[in-house]
Amino acid sequence: MNKLHYSLDEIPPILLAILALMLLIQGTWMFQDARKRDRFPWLWGLWGITSFPGPLLIYWLVVIRTDRKRHTRSKRNR
After folding, report:
1. Which residues of 7-18 are buried (b: 16+ CB within 10 A; e: fewer)?
2. Coil, helix or strand at residue 7
3. 3-state DSSP assignment of residue 6
4. What are the residues whose beta carbons fall under 8 Å from the beta carbon of 46, sequence distance 6 or more?
5. Whole-prediction pTM value?
6. Where are the transmembrane segments (predicted)?
7. Cβ 26 vs Cβ 55: under 8 Å
């Protein structure tokens, strides 16, 4: 078999458990933060448990960064 592809039998169970835990933590945090910001929490939470760290980076660019820009603009206009 090609050395770039692994079967689940070749990956240690502890690594799979760590990956599952990371995905669960990431998805939970994204869901809670999106709910706090009122920005489609179920979408971000479900997408957060699919892979790591892509959804988190895109969440930061789309949600957190735009909210910070909006917040600093509103402070300047006061």
Report:
1. eeeeeeeeeeee
2. coil
3. coil
4. 27
5. 0.78
6. 12-31, 43-64
7. yes
CA–CA distance, 15 with 39 (Å, rounded to integer): 32
Side chain identity, residue 65: R
- Write out pLDDT tens, residues 8-56: 888 899 999 999 999 999 999 999 999 999 999 999 999 999 998 999 9
3-state secondary structure string across the chain: CCCCCCCCCCCCHHHHHHHHHHHHHHHHHHHHHHHHHCCCHHHHHHHHCCCCCHHHHHHHHHHHHHHHHHHHHHHHCC
Rounded CA-CA distance 48/24 in Å is 8
Residue type, 7: S
